[in-house]
Design brief:
This protein is of the alpha+beta class. Helices cover about 50% and strands about 20% of the residues. It has one domain: Reverse transcriptase/Diguanylate cyclase domain (Alpha-Beta Plaits).
Length: about 180
C-alpha cells in the first residue's frame, strides 16, 4: 500500500509540494482529492481487466464527543493510529487508503471479492484496537462493497453503496462490519 512512509522511504514525488497535497499529515494516508484520482484509476483498470474491486469505509462513531473528550495531541495520536492500522492492514501494493473526512478512512481493494474485503476489514479492526493510542471505548464501524466494475457506472457508486453498508453496520450495533455485493 502506498502511503506517506513509502514515499519518504525512497519513491519521491517530482515536485515536493505535490507530495504534501497528496497525503494527510495526521494519518500518513492519501488525501481525499488524491484518493478520488486513484479510485478512478482503479475503477478503469478493474473494468478493463474484468476483476472485482473492493471499497471499505472505516468510520469512528461519535467523532464530535471524542474530539471534545481528548486533547488535541491525543486526538492527533488517535488519527495517526487509525491511519497506521489501515495502512498495515491493506497489504497488497495496489490497495490504497485515504482519510476522507474527520474520523473516516476509505480503502480501495484491488481484485477483492466480498470475502476478501471482509478479511481486510477484520484485519483493520484488529489492528485498530491493538494500537496503544486507541481508547477501549472507541467504536469503529465498517461498511464495504465488492463489485465487478463496468463502464455504465462511475466509481462514486462505490461511495454511496459503502455508506449504505456503514448505516447497516451502525444499525446492527456493537461496531459491526457489513460488506455488500454489487451496486444495487
Amino acid at each position: 500500500m502506498q502511503n506517506l512512509r513509502q514515499v519518504r522511504g525512497g519513491r519521491r514525488a517530482v515536485d515536493p509540494t505535490s507530495e504534501l497535497k497528496e497525503f494527510d499529515p495526521l494519518t500518513g494516508l492519501a488525501s481525499r482529492p488524491f484518493f478520488r484520482f486513484r479510485l478512478e484509476e482503479q475503477w478503469e483498470q478493474s473494468c478493463r481487466n474484468h476483476r472485482p474491486l473492493g471499497f471499505l469505509m472505516v468510520v469512528i462513531d461519535d467523532v464530535a464527543s471524542l474530539r471534545r473528550e481528548y486533547s488535541k495531541d491525543a486526538w492527533r495520536s488517535m488519527l495517526g493510529a487509525l491511519g497506521s492500522a489501515v495502512s498495515q492492514s491493506c497489504q497488497r501494493r495496489a490497495d490504497f487508503a485515504a482519510r476522507v473526512r474527520v474520523g473516516e478512512v476509505a480503502a480501495v481493494l484491488s481484485d477483492a471479492s466480498v470475502d476478501g474485503a471482509r478479511v481486510v476489514a477484520d484485519r483493520i479492526r484488529t489492528a485498530i484496537y491493538a494500537q496503544p493510542a486507541v481508547p477501549e471505548h472507541l467504536r469503529v464501524v465498517m461498511g464495504g462493497v465488492s463489485v465487478m466494475p463496468n463502464p455504465s457506472y462511475f466509481a462514486n457508486a462505490l461511495w454511496m453503496r459503502a455508506n449504505e453498508a456503514v448505516d447497516e453496520a451502525r444499525d446492527a450495533g456493537s461496531g459491526g462490519i457489513v460488506i455488500l455485493s454489487g451496486l444495487n
